[in-house]
Structure formats: C-alpha cells, structure tokens
Amino acid sequence: MADNPFRPRGGNGRQQLPEEVATYVRELIMSGQAKPGEFLRTEPIAEAVGVSNTPVREGLLSLRSEGFVELVPRRGFVVAPVSRQDIRDLFWAQAQFSSELAARAAKKITTDELERLEAINEDFEKAVEAGDQETVARLGHEFHRRINLAAGSHRLTMLLSSVVKHLPNRFYASIEEHVTATRNDHAELVQALRGRHARKARTIAEQHILEGADSVIKMLEERGLWSDGE
Q1: Which domains does the chain have, with CATH numbers?
Q2: Is residue 184 classed as helix, strand or coil in its secondary structure?
Q3: CA angle, 201 as apex, 197 and 207 as ends, to 5°?
Q4: Which residues form a coiled coil (predicted)?
C-alpha cells in the first residue's frame, strides 16, 4: 500500500491523523485497490500515511461506522461488501445536494465569482491538455466548491460535504470519459449561472454528477471488483 498514489500529503494542510487514515483507506476501497473481503493490515497503512498504529485504528473505526469496513473479532478489519447500487446511491445523494446548490447559486452569484469560475475552468482546460491529473482533480473540486459557496446555504453545503467524503476525488481525473464530459459540463454550467437560469443550472449539475457514477462503476468493473452477476 505504500506506493498508493492517493497517499495524503503532509504540510500545513494536513487533516487530523485518524481522518487522514480514513481518507486513504476509503480511497483504496472506492478505487478498487482494496477489495471486499480483504483484511486491512495496520502496519502498511501506518507506513503509507506516515502515522503510528493508534490513528490507524481510530481511522478504521470511523470507516466502520460509515460501512466501509467490518471488524472481525481477534482478526482485525476487513473491507465490507460494496455494490454497484451503493456507488449509484452515493452519486445520487451528491447530485441532489449539488444540483440544489447550483440552482440557488444561479440566483445569488456575483460577477466576481463568475469570473473566478471562468478562470478556474481555463486552468482546468490547461491541466487536461498537459495531462496533469492531480491539478485536474484539484481544480474540478475547487470549481464545484466555489459554486456551493456562492449559493449561500451553509447547512446544505455541510450536508453535501458529509456525502462527498465517501467519494474520492482524485481518481476521477484518470477516467478519460469523465474528464471530457466535465470540460463540456463546466462551460455549460457557467453559462447557466451567468444567465441566472436556475432550472438549467440544476439540470446540468445533477446530470453531470450522475454520469460520473457510470464512469466509476465501469472503472471498478475493469478492475475486477465484482464477479459476474453481482
């Protein structure tokens, strides 16, 4: 696990240690690198994240409460089953919150905020052309974060955050079909926001996220996460 590309970064922006562990393992699971039924050994996780065993156990206990792992007495933590419907449900929940926030943002967003969105989108395009997947993922997240903030709905944004943490952001950038769709959707969403078209913004945001589920499920199928008929 030490060579996993989703390893959390150090520095001033570090999360609390147990949450770093939870983020790392959650991404292993949701990207198909840790498969249902596999036991999660504490030592490789601690080495990969750069923490001691105590935060690892706390992070895994957090994931247990989220349904990502199960605790087998005297044996340790094992990856819990995850179905295609589980993936679709997570994307559906995210789509409901995000689309509502996009509709609200269409009524409140300022000119400065729109210009910032367009600047982010331009940088996103450059990152895609350069094949910079890390920057693609970061800017994609920032684009939607700016829209959510422009909606001025703090409580709804917090609820969305609780769902989004179940869906790793970084591996989306490696899915070519999804990146291509994102480039088109972002431009159309900015246009809808600039025109104050709340209904259109809602539709674009919802469809954009729901289509991401298909890309992720396809990727996990290719990685052999599910056997035939599952």
Answers
A1: 17-79 (1.10.10.10), 84-222 (1.20.120.530)
A2: helix
A3: 150
A4: 107-134
